[in-house]
TrEMBL record:
<feature type="domain" description="HTH lysR-type">
    <location>
        <begin position="3"/>
        <end position="60"/>
    </location>
</feature>
<dbReference type="GO" id="GO:0003677">
    <property type="term" value="F:DNA binding"/>
</dbReference>
<dbReference type="GO" id="GO:0003700">
    <property type="term" value="F:DNA-binding transcription factor activity"/>
</dbReference>
<keyword id="KW-0804">Transcription</keyword>
<keyword id="KW-0238">DNA-binding</keyword>
<protein>
    <submittedName>
        <fullName>Transcriptional regulator, LysR family</fullName>
    </submittedName>
</protein>
<dbReference type="InterPro" id="IPR000847">
    <property type="entry name" value="LysR_HTH_N"/>
</dbReference>
<comment type="similarity">
    <text>Belongs to the LysR transcriptional regulatory family.</text>
</comment>
<dbReference type="InterPro" id="IPR036390">
    <property type="entry name" value="WH_DNA-bd_sf"/>
</dbReference>
<keyword id="KW-0805">Transcription regulation</keyword>
<dbReference type="InterPro" id="IPR036388">
    <property type="entry name" value="WH-like_DNA-bd_sf"/>
</dbReference>
<dbReference type="Pfam" id="PF03466">
    <property type="entry name" value="LysR_substrate"/>
</dbReference>
<dbReference type="GO" id="GO:0005829">
    <property type="term" value="C:cytosol"/>
</dbReference>
<dbReference type="InterPro" id="IPR005119">
    <property type="entry name" value="LysR_subst-bd"/>
</dbReference>
<dbReference type="Pfam" id="PF00126">
    <property type="entry name" value="HTH_1"/>
</dbReference>
<dbReference type="InterPro" id="IPR050950">
    <property type="entry name" value="HTH-type_LysR_regulators"/>
</dbReference>
Length: 303
């Protein structure tokens, strides 16, 4: 059955005014358009709703039953749509966002603070998860969208890049690389590496960078958190390759950061289910995170 709101509203207008011309004037349609809409409605229902004469329009029994129920239903629908429109305009409600750990720690606090300042009635709830769990939460609809590292081949998701950031070298201040302004990837070949494990969205990109530079990796430790990586470097276990967003270094640390060349960057992305529209509130938060990321990129300096 293919019945439109336009047909139903036209029928109600005729039922109220008992005239095609007066109904048309009330809803902004010509008399032929009113007649056409009602013929389509009756055709879809397979029922005669109106008895027409040259002087009057009368409702059939079916028309009376429909008019009585339809007026209440359309009033409720109008009220529901008005409430929904107001919800979007007032930015009131909850938005759930999942983000991988370095993003949760270093980008999302600014996003949440700005959201609270700009939209005090909007509750932005963060789910701090490793990359694969973020992807699972987005796909299942548990969150409105995610903020992650380039998921490399997630064709079922819509991805928008919001930030490009380079990988850098982290080592102790007494390491031979600490005296360099920058370090070549090729120089890392003989070095023990303390790296994030494969729960991190960065690790596949780091492996890919070593492969592209034709540098063999000597992995000493694979760890789940950047804080643990820093402690291992401080203990002399090795050096690390980390994204800029994993900084700043711990306070009172004797670690240093150096650029790697050629520069290799990772992409931070907003991700949502493909072919699924965001709610107006989620669209608002999506745009806000994009805005904060752009400001972060513009103000970024090497430590």
């Amino acid at each position: 059955m293919n019945i439109s709101l336009r047909q139903l509203r036209t029928f109600l207008a005729v039922a109220r005014h008992r005239s095609f011309s007066r109904a048309g004037d009330a809803i902004g349609l010509s008399q032929p358009a009113v007649s056409h809409a009602l013929r389509e409605l009756e055709g879809e229902l397979g029922l005669k709703l109106l008895d027409r004469t040259t002087r009057d329009v009368a409702l059939t029994e079916a028309g009376q039953n429909l008019a009585g129920t339809l007026e209440r239903l359309l009033d409720e629908l109008e009220g529901c749509l008005a409430e929904t429109r107001q919800l979007g305009e007032t930015r009131q409600g909850r938005v759930r966002v999942a983000a991988s750990p370095t993003i949760s720690a270093n980008l999302m606090p600014s996003c949440i603070a700005r959201s609270a300042e700009r939209y005090p009635k909007l509750s932005l709830m963060l789910r701090d998860q490793v990359q694969q769990l973020v992807l699972a939460s987005v796909r299942s609809g548990e969150v409105d969208f995610g903020v992650i590292i380039d998921p490399l081949g997630a064709d079922d998701l819509y991805c928008e890049t919001i930030l490009q950031e380079p990988f850098c070298l982290v080592c102790r201040a007494d390491h031979r690389f600490a005296g360099n302004e920058s370090v070549a990837w090729s120089e890392l070949a003989a070095e023990p590496l303390v790296l994030l494990d494969y729960a991190s969205g960065s690790r596949p990109l780091i492996d890919k960078a070593f492969a592209q530079q034709q540098v063999s990796m000597r992995v000493a430790q694979e760890l789940g958190h950047s804080t643990t990586v820093y402690r291992m470097i401080e203990a002399g276990i090795g050096i690390s390759v980390l994204p800029i967003l994993a900084l700043p270094l711990p306070e009172a640390s004797d670690l240093v950061v150096r650029p790697l060349f050629p520069a290799v960057e990772r992409s931070l992305m907003l991700v949502r289910r493909k072919n699924r529209s965001l709610s107006p509130l989620a669209e608002t938060v999506w745009a806000l995170i994009r805005e904060v990321a752009a400001e972060f990129a513009a103000s970024r300096t090497w430590p």
